[in-house]
Amino acid sequence: MPDEPHGATAPPTGQALAQGWGALSSLHGRIEAHIERALRAGHGLSVREFAVLNVLSGQHDGEGGHLQMKELADSVVLSQSATTRLVARLEARGLLSRYICPTDRRGIYTNVSREGLRLLEEARPTHDAALREALQDAARRPELAPLVTAVEGLCSPSLAHGVTDRRLTA
Predict the structure, then answer these.
(1) If you average pLDDT over residues 109-127, what whole number do you get?
(2) What is the pTM for the complete model shown?
(3) Closest-CA residue to 78 (of 52, 98, 112, 109)
(4) Neighbouring C-beta atoms of residue 6, cutoff 10 Å
(5) Interacting residues of 78 by C-beta distance below 8 A, sequence separation 6+
(6) DSSP H helices in the chain
(7) Cα–Cα distance between 45 and 29 in angstroms, integer?
(8) How far does the chain reach from its first CA to its final CA, in angstroms?
(9) Residue percentage of the chain with pLDDT more than 70
(10) CB neighbour burial string for 48-85, b if at least 16 within 10 angstroms, e if fewer
(11) Residues 6 or more apart whose Cβ sits within 8 Å of residue 4
(12) Cα separation of 166 and 12, whole Å?
């Protein structure tokens, strides 16, 4: 096309976008199912439970250091009501505790208990190994290999050295 800059490509067609979305959805489903099986078998945790513990373990006492339920829900990609139910189940298991915000009595915050931190640290190697296994398996599938390469390319040097944005970890 004459109006496009040199080297520019036309946007993908609707069918191409749908195929790409299907491949991305397939990759996500395969990874999540593999991690779910490993976490349940080894630690009695679901992927979502692990994600909640992981996100909440990164809280701190500084400015903005505690998440409100909506922020937690956004971080683990669940509705607020589903997150509230999940937090209640984890609290009943002794893995979390809730408390009223000292500066805003309307706010309720959640902390990971010592037992929750212990379980999270025990489960983390299982989670990480299952993630690596799922990605290796997906890389052998031609339709998923480019996505695996893209995911692996998202790893910045800070991520490779253990500095993570816990909101992105599941």
Answers:
(1) 95
(2) 0.81
(3) 52
(4) 4
(5) 48, 86
(6) 14-43, 47-57, 69-76, 80-92, 114-139, 145-153, 157-160
(7) 17
(8) 43
(9) 85
(10) bbbbbbbbbeebeeeeeebbbbeebbebbebeeeebbe
(11) 10
(12) 32
Beta bridge partners of 100: 108
Rounded CA separation 42/26 (Å): 24
Task: In whole angstroms, give the CA distance from residue 104 to residue 134.
Answer: 43
2 has pLDDT over 60: no
Digit-coded pLDDT (tens) for 121-170: 999 999 999 999 999 999 999 999 999 999 999 986 655 444 444 444 44
What angle (nearest 5°) sits at the alpha carbon of residue 87, between those of residues 37 and 161?
A: 60
Nearest-10 crossing angle of helices 47-57, 80-92: 90
